[in-house]
Structures are given as structure tokens and as C-alpha cells.
Amino acid sequence: MAVLTERATARPAPVRNTRRIAVAAIVAGWLVLWLILRGHQTLELGTSDLTSLHRWFNDFNDAIGADRNSNPLFLYFFNEIRLVIDNLVTFFQGLISQPSFGRPVPAIGWLGVVAIAGYASWALGNLRVAALAVGGFVFFGLQGLWQESMDTLALTLSAVFVSLLIGIPIGVWAGLSSRVNRLVTPVLDFMQTMPTFVYLAPLTLFFLIGPASATIATLIYATPPAVRITAHAIRSVPHTTVEAAESLGSTRRQTLTKVLLPMAKRTIVLGVNQTIMAALSMVTIAALIDAPGLGKTVVKALETLDVGVAFNAGLAIVVMAIVLDRVTTAASVRAEVAGRASRNSVRRRRAGLVGAGVVTAVCVWLSYTYVWASQFPEGAGLGDDIARTADSVTRWAQSNLSGATNGLRDAMTTALLNPFEDVLTGSPWWLVGAVLVALGAVLGGWRAGATAAVCVALIVASGLWRDSMTTLASSLVATVIVMALGVVVGVWMGRSAMADRLIRPVLDAGQTMPAFVYLVPFLALFGATRFTAIVAAIVYAAPVTMKIIADGIRGVPETAVEAATAAGSSTWQTITKVQLPMARKSLTLATNQGLIYVLSMVVVGGLVGAGALGYDVVAGFSQGQLYGKGLAAGLAIVLLGVMFDRITQAAAQRAAGAPSGR
Amino acid sequence: MVTGRRPAGRFAALAGAAALALVVSGCGGAKVGGSSDSTGGGKGKCGTFNLAVNPWVGYEANAAVIAYVAEKDLGCKVTKKDLKEEVAWQGFGTGEVDAVVENWGHDDLKKKYIDQQKTAVSAGETGNTGVIGWYVPPWMAKKYPDITDSKNLNKYADLFKTSESSGKGQLLDGDPSFVTNDGALVKNLKLDYKVVYAGSEAALIQAFRQAEAKKTPVIGYFYEPQWLFSELKLTKVDLPKYTDGCDSVPDKVACDYPGYLLDKVVSKKFSTSGSPAFDLVKKFEWTNEDQNLVAKYIAQDKMSPEAAAKKWVDANRTKVKSWLP
What we know:
Chain A: It is a multi-pass membrane protein. The structure holds 2 protein chains of 2 kinds. Chain A is an all-alpha fold. Chain A has 2 domains: 13-57 and 401-657, MetI-like fold (Orthogonal Bundle); 71-393, MetI-like fold (Orthogonal Bundle). Helix content of chain A is 82%, strand content 0%. Chain A is globular and about 80 Å long. The relative contact order of chain A is 0.12. By secondary structure, chain B is an alpha/beta fold. Chain B folds into 2 domains: 41-129 and 261-321, D-Maltodextrin-Binding Protein, domain 2; 131-260, D-Maltodextrin-Binding Protein, domain 2 (3-Layer(aba) Sandwich), CATH 3.40.190.100. Chain B is built from 13 helices and 9 strands. In chain B, strands 3, 4, 7, 8 and 9 form a 5-stranded antiparallel beta sheet that branches. A two-stranded parallel sheet of chain B has the order 1-2. Chain B has a two-stranded parallel ribbon with strand order 5-6. The chains are: A mainly alpha, B alpha/beta. At the A-B interface, α2, α8, α13, α16 and α18 of A face α1, α3, α4, β6 and α8 of B.
């Protein structure tokens, strides 16, 4: 959730040392008080107990439902939105996935879609990603998942389209005005960290069951990156350029369209990329309210614990994500270099594109007209092979590894998780609250301390203090492991281009493979425990930290590394004394993102034995009388996220001011 | 595919494809989304039948058979909607769901949608009886025969210790969709156990499967009918017998769960629409064995719900006849 930009003023080293001492003192004081006061005022609440706030949420939700058919807001506002979005999705589906226009097949068959995907990838990016796109799309067909993939693509495209339609203008506005930015940021935080399970059921009340609700659920999660990154892009345009344009007499509109937008184009395309990724990560959850596509296949397969079939569908989502990611990344590079290409090569490319356009048009026509080009030929059967292989790998792992995995789980639980949890849940609430506020103030300044105080107060008000602390303990342990892995792998990737190339697709898979797919084997390996939830969170969060740290290591000026090597430093010394310290800003950003990603897996953890907030949310989604408690738990997760985001961001800004060589 | 062939071959393929396309467009030219395209010899107008499909295999079995019969015998256009219970019931009011065909109790939802909002009505029982309770894997029941009496559970508490149970025995609770009294039960029966919330059906099934495969101890909350029983015959632990009203005060519960007569619920609008699909839903009734068989086709033989339904319907024509007008 952080886009770090501003640079804080430099601080001399002694300040950092006193800060370190202060942190140590706070923690030591906490431990002492914990020993004395443990077990008092821990604000415990039973699993099926409710507070009056939870009941009030319930009543509110019921009131909306009862009022639905007479309320003008529903009749004239939500219904209109629903109609527009329903039509948009149905249009895309009719184009590529569902029988339409009175025909038994979609308008464009597989050959046409593959051709368009290849052509668009070439036009927006380059030939390499075009080949990747063609390969990826053919792969969906070979997996036996053509129609499901196209449904997912149609839904994702609609959601991304609407996200950008809303997100980019707001992003530009927030980029131009810091007041708007301050106003928008908490809303975006809320949209990104509020667990989807909390608003999934109410959404169907507002927008009915169907594509509209699924699209809106997706775009709630997918719009924030578009807004944030667009705002960041606008703000990153050098002041001097803007001033020059203004001094030449440009109007505001001219400055925006002629200077700011073109210069921010590359970064905005990256925002598009992140929006697509976020939208794809919602595929399985949206399937719970009848969203068509690959998510349904995953959810259905898991009813019978059919890991193979679920994996096959999950793999299709991963492939789609990788294709879309590489194409949009290539597009953002093209956006940057477009102006610099020689005229000759531009002309050659243009001619090539015209030729390819004709071929694409022919393919589309063929796929409209002929059955062989319309419906993907059956019997390729690659999907069955993938499913079978995944099944046997899982079975092997379950029967051969579970001894070792149980040992690992027990060791981690007793050595790391239980102590953390004991201290956090066993201390009186006001003590933990005071510690959090103090740490916030010391690490991030008074503003971060104040934010922490507000968050602590609201968590107490949510009635779920103890559950929040249990969740926090697991999340902190997960983040520690994520950071350890992130540093090791990130440094390796940052230092070796080869390692980067090999590892990156695995990381992409970790980020986009639906958690539901790997939860089943994890459950067999680790049982329904808090540790299983931690492992799931690591799979999802470690890739982000690795990517950020690798990027930071690569950003360390080569001259610094060369100087160290020339002075006789060993590889170990170069890493610990030069590269890691100089990549400090990336490390802090990685911690921030690591924790936020871990928190976004809290609900998934609730499905595999983590209990606490995650379970509260899941139970609230499943049982009417627990809805209010689930909503409160969702809010508590948001609050934890906001608190740590503000503290780590403020700390990062300070770190950026410290000597970092950039 | 066509790419590798010689021109003559390609021409033939194209011609063949064109012919095929003609055939397909000839007989499949039904208008998409058009009302009541009667595929079978349907009697009466059926139109579209919106059937909720809740996410468990037993429900899927009910829905598959009802959908199959509605399509083949009544000529309905069945739209299955994959939804969680809570969302499905909400759909009664918004007119997007016509029927829920396996409901486990859910008195809260009944109160809200049948009594208060009056958007849903009951459509009778499915004939299936649901059992909720505590179960142990078969190997444990064999090795410790007296474990099936809850009075002896404290004797075995040590066996069930895990990393999650803080020194007590672990009672694994599961799917949050089901009401559980286990916290109160453990307290009121004075058991030395801690309830650990697994959070999903998948977590429970994996726990029982691993326990049987590795001969490790586990005790947990489960229910029948459930497809797992065709693979693994779990043994139920007897809690103090259920009597009427013994579970009326949640904190004081010290008795077993009641048996659930699973039932069907339809939207008010559907019930008065005169659709033959409503009569089908109302008359639909079968046994636990029937459901288990279809669930097994789906879960273990990996048949599609449609194929599983067809297989069962073809073998049980007389039963199906009794559901039809």
C-alpha cells in the first residue's frame, strides 16, 4: 500500500542509535510488566459471543435487506449501475466465451482470440511477448479450459476497464492535489485491506447475484493500485519541467495533457499492470457468488479435495497472469522508448503490423465462420496429465513428508509463535496499546504514534482485541520468516541475473496461484494449525519482498560494489557492509509490503486453523447471526494494516534520509 | 490442427468444417436467453428455473438430479447458481434464486426470510436425515472401543494433544457454516479438551484422512450424509442423548446435537408461479443411500454432476416418476 516518494531530511547517526536504545527499552519494559500482569484485562471474547456493536451491525444489515425493494436508492441508483456493468460483462462474454448473437458459440472463436492476443501484444509490446501470449492462450485450450479461461478473461477485462475508468482520473487528481491525496489514501487502504468475505454477501444485496456483483467485488480490490500508482506517477514528474511549461504560458489543462500525462505514461502503464494482477487474484473468491470462469473450477474441485483439477485451473490463472504481466510491462517499456527508435525501424515495424493485422482479421473471420476455428479441438488432454501429475506429487508429499513437516511445525510453534502469542495476548490491553503507540512514535515520529493510538482505540472498540492480538502474533511471525527469506533470495536475485530469470516465474506463480489450491496439501502436511496459515501467508507474501529487495540490491551503484571488491572485501562483506545497508529503503518497503500481504492472507488462514480474526470473518460470511462480528473482525484487520503501514512508512522515510548512497 | 497439412488436405478440412458449421447452425440456432425452448417433451410451460447450488457435494447431488429431471422431463431451462447458503437465501428476495434443495436447520435464516421478510416458503423435506456430532477415525474406534462414549473421553485427552491445544486434548471443529455447541459442551461435560477451529470442511476431511492413513489420533466435529463416508467410515462418539429443548440455552448445552430433517426452501414467487419445476422440487424425496450414491459418483468416480444424475435417474426411473405430475 505504500508508494514511497518523499525524502525526509537527513538525520545524523547518533539519532538512530538513541532510537535503537529507546526501542530496546520499550520492549524490555513490556516484558517485565507482562511477567507481573499476565492474564489480566486481556479482553477475551468467546467464539460465539457478540458485543452490542456486532448486534448493531447485524440489525443494520438486515434493515438494508428488508428495505431493498422499496428504497429509491436501490431502484434508481444501484440498479442502473448493475445494468450497465452487467451489459458490459455480457458483451465481453458474448465476444469470447459464451454463446451469443443467436449462435451456439461466441462471436470470436479460439483462433481469433489467440490471433488478437498475439497481435495486441506485439503492437503494445514486442514480438517476444507476442509469442508468449500466443503460447499462453493456446495452453488454456490444451488444458481443456478454453471456455473457463475466456470467462475469467472477460470478467477480468471488464473489471480492469471500469477500474481504470474510475482509477486513473482520481489518480491524476490525487497526484495534482495533496489534499485530495490525503482524503483518498485511507479510502484506498480500506478497499485493499478489508477482507472480501465481509462485503461479498452485502454486495449481492445491492447488485444482485451475477456478473455485476462479481465485477464490483473485483474492482473494489483492483482500483486502488491504479489510483495510487497514477498519483505517484504524476507527482514524480520533475518540478522543473512543470515550471518550465507554466512559465511558457501553458494553461493547467495544457500542462496536464502535454507535459504531465505523457511524462507519467510509463508509470501509469505499470499501474494498469498492478490492477490486472489484483483483479486476477479475486477470481476464486468471486466464484463464491457465482462468477463464471476458472474460479468455479477451483472451488468445485475443492469440495471433493480434488487437488489435481484445482491445480490445473490454478495453473491457467497463473499463466494468464504471467502473460498479462509481461505484455503490460513490455508496453510500459515501449511507452518509454517509443520516441527514440530510428525512423527506419519504425517504418519496418509499421509495415509488419499492417501485415499481421490482415492475418489477424482473417483468423477472426475464420473463427467466426468455421467450427474448427471456433471451438478448441477436444482431446488434447493436457489438462488430465497436469491434474494426474499434481495429484501424484501431492499424494507422495503427503505420505512421505508429513513426519518432517510436523517436526518443523512443532519447533516453530513452540520456539517462535507461542512466546509471541503469549506476550501479545497475555498482556493487559492498555499495556500492548501503550507499547504500540510508543514504538510508533519512536520509529515513525509523533504522527505515526498518534495513528497507532487511534487504531488501538478502535480495535478495542471492535470488541475483538484478543483475537486481534492472536492474529497479530501469527502475522508478525509470518513477516519475520518472509523477511528472512526475502533477504536471502532477494540478494541472490539482485546479484545474479540468471537466478532472477529462473526464480521470477516461480514468484509470479506464488502470487497468483489461488491459495485454495495449495491449502489442501498444506493441511495434510501441517494439519489444521496456526502454522499452516503462516505457511500459506509466506507463499503469498515472500515473492513481493523478494522482488522488492532484488530491485533494491540491483539499484546499488556498481561503483560502490566495485570499490568494495577492489578494497579486498569478501562476497559476504560486500553484501552485509555495502549492498544491504545501501538498499535500506527497499528493505523497509519490503517489510511494509510483506506485512500487508501477510495481513491479506489472514482470512485464508482462518480456513485452515488460524482461528482469531480470520475465523471470525469466515464465520460471519457463513452464519447470519455472526455477520456483525465478521464485519468487526474485518475492520480490525484494516486497522492493524493501517497502523503498521503508517509506522513502517514513516520509518522508511526516515531511513531514506539516512546515508543510503542515492 | 490444420496448419501442417497440404493445400488439398486443408481445403478438405475447410470444406468439412464449413459443412459442420452449417449443420451446427442449422440445428443449434436457438436464440440465446430466449424463453422456454423445449428440448424434451415437456408438459406445460416451465421457463427458466434458477437453482441455487450450495458448496458441498451432498447438495450438489440433490441439485444435479433435480436439474436433470427438470430439463429432460419437464423441458425447463435450468440455471444453476453456485452460492453460499447465506447468499442463496438472500436471492429469494431479489428474485434470483427459485429453490434451495438441501437445507440444514438454519433457523435464523428461516426466521428472517420465511417469517419476517416473507420472501421464502418451505417446500417440505428431502427425505435425508442429517447427523451432526463428534467423530473419530475407524482405527481409533477399533483400538479403543470405549472411546465412543463421551464419558471416557477424558481418559484419552492426552492422545489428542497438538501444537494448538495448549496442553489439553484437541477437539477439532470445522466448517463455520454449521452451528456448533462444542465450546459449551466441553465446558458443561467437564472435558479436558480445547476446541480448535479448523475453519473449513477441507481442513476436517484432511485431518481425518491423514489420521487414518498415519494412524494418528484425531477427534472432531463432522456430519452425515457426507461423501467422505464412502471412503472412510468414521465412528460417531455418543454424547448424552438429545432430548427436546436440551439445547435451548446455548451456554448450558450438555447433550448431543438433534437429528436434522433436511428440507427444501423455495422463493414465494416461485411457489405461486405454477411452474412444473416447483411441483418437482416439492415432491422430490429420496434416501440417504440415494444421495450417498450420487455423491460418490461425483466425488470419487469424478463424474460430472450431469453424468452422475443421468446414471442414477436411469437406474431409478420409478422413484423419479413419483416426483412428476
